[in-house]
Amino acid sequence: MKKQVLNRIKAVLAEEGKTNKELAEQIKVAEPTVSRWCTNTQQPSLEMLFEISKALKRDVRDLLVSNR
After folding, report:
1. Which CATH architecture best describes the domain 8-57?
2. Per-residue model confidence as pLDDT tens digits over 38-60
3. Dihedral, 15, 39, 54, 18 alpha carbons, nearest 10
């Protein structure tokens, strides 16, 4: 059975109609950094996850995938 990889940051950006560049500008990081988060190449720190949730006006839990 193939494991399904989900990326909530990418999904929320799509739901909000925002681009990686817009998020990067809002939270003052480089655009390639956001791209790496959206492709699961790298993960944001917990502190940065809270910054992302503020910028996207979402609960931080919306950016996480439950392991249940």
Report:
1. Orthogonal Bundle (1.10)
2. 999 999 999 999 999 999 999 99
3. -40
